[in-house]
Each structure stands twice: as C-alpha cells, then as structure tokens.
C-alpha cells in the first residue's frame, strides 16, 4: 500500500492490516541505497506474491525451504495473472496474438519471463539481507546455481568480449532477448495528427525528439524548461541526477501554445509542474494519466504502442543519423553502458519484413522471365549475346 511518506513510500501489510516487519526492513535498506520509490514498489509487488503464496501453503517466511521456493517458481510460471476489468473482457482468441498494426503480441494470461526472473532476483536479495543480519533462515531458499558457473570467475576472459553474467539463480528462467520497437514515421505522423490538445502535442513532440523516459518528462517543472537553448532538465531514473537534454524547436512551439492555453488557469511558479490535467479542477498530470491519453490515441488506429516506444523511436532516429555518434546517443538517452545503446543498431522489424518481401518479389520476377532456347548448332553463343544484348 502507498503511504505518502517520503521516508516510507510503500508498506506491505498482512491479512490483518499489520505491516510486515521483515519487508519493512528490506524497504529501508533499498531507500538507504538510494533506490527510487518506484523501485520500492516494484520490489514490493514481488514480495507480495511470495507472501500470498506462503499464506496459501501455511509456511512462515523464515521457515521457507528450497522446496517451497521451487514450488513457487513453478506456480508463478503457470499462474493466471490478475488483470483489470478491461483486460478480462478481451476475447480469449486475441490473447497472445500479434497486433495487426504494430506486430506486438498481446499479453498472455500468465506472468512474463522477465517478471518471473525479476521476482527470483528480488526474493534472493531479500533472504540474503536477513541471512546476513541473522534475522532469517541460514540457507537462502532462492540459491545461486553454481553449476551454471564452472571454475573460477572470469577465468581466461577474452578482453575483446563482453563480460558474461557471473552468477545465476537456480530458479531463474531464461529471458528472451527483446528488440526495441520504434514507431515508423508514417504511423507517428498519423498518431500526432489524431492528438486533440496542445498539451498532448507538446508532450509527444518532446518525447519523440529528446528520447527521455515518460516519467522523467512528467516530472519536469517550469524552471526546468529553457526555450532559448532548446533544453529541458530531467531527473534520470537510475542515477537520480539532473541532466539537460536537447529537444526539437517544434516541441517548444507546441509547449508555448500549451502554456498560453493555461494562462490564468493554474498558479505559476518556478517549482510548479509543467503538465496539468485538461479538466477542472486542474491537478498535476500523473504517469497513468499520460498513459491513458496515449492509449486513447492508439485505439483510433487499433494499435498498441506505448509511451516507452516513443523513447525507442527517438533513439532509432538518432542512431540512423550519420552526424551523431553512438556516444552522443548514449549521453542523450542517459545510458550507463554503451552496450545498452547498441541495441538500437539492429534494424526494425518492419524494415526487415519489407526487405525480405522485396527479396521474394525479385526472385519471383527472375523466375518468371522466359528462358531463351539454346542456339542452333553452328552458332557462337558469345556472338549472339553481343548481337541481342543478352547477359551471359
């Protein structure tokens, strides 16, 4: 549950409404390490699933064994994920099928492999903390699988190759490699034309030109906007550092139009938020409000792009610009490692599909060309090729 307290933003409670003390201590460790409140919430959702499982099997958290962890890992990969009412009304035949516009597969009924892997990592760290503090079991129910790492760590490592994962959890599933999906330019133009307000146009223009995360842009204050230098200051998600990021001139034009629409309707101030709701009473815009706005625009075309796809689209545009280096794109996106930015060098799915279809069309044209009969005996084939312009 959310508390509204900056020193304890989230709290896990049991069936009686009492805060779970070992989880509260784990949350305090996360906050002391500089983790954001969103990280605490994400870790709390993993611990909530584990606590519900322990309640169902009637096992105390400090008496959980590796057999319980194994059963939980099997259950979470087979369980049906609770979904909102709108998702429950979705026909069963559409679950897991690709979207006809974007090619994305709709979410399946269960938890994604990335969610299962994240849960295993969080629970392993949770029990490591209490094992070191002496407040939990001596054996971690979610151990590391040393069989996946034979020999000494980094033995005979090639300096020209990337570092491989040093340790892997025993119950950690294999997560498929995800390819970033960007919005093609023609579809983006259609989406932008369907926006209904200057606020939405300003936000989309800033996202697609700056490449910042959705939460980073929503947290921008009025003092963070510098139209003269075409810069906005955002707080990075990972490092929590404030960084100035350039954006396009068109984005600041839409932003100025939106500010003119709000003139006299909201209080102005350097620390006031830039983004507000469109309906009275005006409230600061939240991430969920921006997400619903983009969902409504997608619904007009039957697409399912997300706000994070705008960041992927901006990164893909920058990478394909020969005047920008990969390190420039890394700095703009705020990536800690260059290998994270390199994933945008891969071609988009629609580009690969178009090239392969063109290959099949060219091959069909070559097969459809009539094959001339062989020359009669006594004629020189090379002379006929020169005479009729045939390729040898």
Automatic annotation (TrEMBL):
Which keywords does this chain's UniProt record carry?
DNA integration, DNA recombination, DNA-binding
Is this entry keyworded DNA-binding?
yes
PROSITE patterns given in the database record:
TYR_RECOMBINASE
Q: Locate the region Disordered.
A: 86-113
Cite the Tyr recombinase domain residue spans from the record: 178-358
Q: What segments bear the compositional bias annotation Polar residues?
A: 96-105
Concerning PANTHER family, the annotation shows: PHAGE INTEGRASE-RELATED, TYROSINE RECOMBINASE XERC
Query: Any idea what this protein is called?
Result: Site-specific integrase
């Amino acid at each position: 549950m959310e508390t509204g307290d900056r020193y304890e933003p989230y709290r896990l409670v049991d069936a009686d409404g009492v805060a779970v003390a070992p989880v509260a201590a784990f949350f305090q460790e996360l906050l002391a390490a500089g983790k954001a409140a969103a990280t605490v919430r994400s870790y709390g959702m993993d611990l909530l699933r584990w606590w519900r499982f322990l309640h169902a099997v009637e096992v105390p958290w400090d008496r959980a064994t590796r057999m319980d962890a194994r059963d939980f890992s099997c259950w979470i990969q087979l369980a049906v994920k609770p979904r909102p009412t709108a998702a429950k009304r979705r026909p069963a035949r559409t679950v897991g099928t690709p979207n006809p516009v974007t090619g994305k597969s709709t979410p399946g009924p269960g938890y994604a492999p990335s969610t299962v892997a994240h849960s295993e990592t969080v629970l392993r760290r949770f029990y490591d903390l209490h094992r070191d503090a002496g407040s939990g079991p001596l054996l971690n129910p979610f151990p590391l699988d040393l069989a996946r790492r034979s020999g000494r760590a980094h033995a005979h490592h090639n300096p020209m190759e990337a570092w491989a994962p040093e340790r892997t959890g025993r119950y950690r599933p294999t997560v498929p490699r995800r390819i970033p999906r960007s919005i093609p330019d023609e579809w983006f133009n259609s989406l932008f034309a369907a926006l209904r307000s200057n606020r939405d146009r300003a936000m989309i223009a800033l996202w697609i030109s700056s490449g910042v995360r959705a939460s980073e842009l929503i947290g921008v204050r009025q003092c963070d906007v510098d139209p003269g230098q075409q810069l906005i200051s955002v707080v990075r998600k990972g490092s929590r550092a404030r960084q100035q990021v350039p954006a396009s001139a068109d984005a600041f034009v839409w932003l100025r139009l939106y500010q003119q629409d709000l003139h006299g309707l909201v209080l102005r101030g350097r620390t006031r938020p830039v983004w507000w709701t469109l309906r009275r009473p005006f409230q600061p815009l939240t991430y969920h409000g921006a997400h619903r706005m983009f969902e409504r625009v997608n619904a007009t075309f039957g697409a399912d792009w997300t706000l994070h796809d705008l960041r992927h689209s901006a990164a893909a545009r920058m990478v394909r610009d020969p005047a920008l280096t990969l390190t420039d794109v890394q700095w703009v996106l705020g990536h800690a490692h260059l290998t994270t930015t390199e994933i945008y060098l891969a071609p988009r799915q629609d580009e690969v599909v178009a090239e392969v279809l063109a290959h099949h069309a060219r091959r069909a044209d070559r097969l459809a060309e009539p094959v001339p009969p062989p020359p009669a005996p006594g004629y020189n084939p090379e002379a006929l090729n020169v005479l009729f312009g045939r390729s040898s």
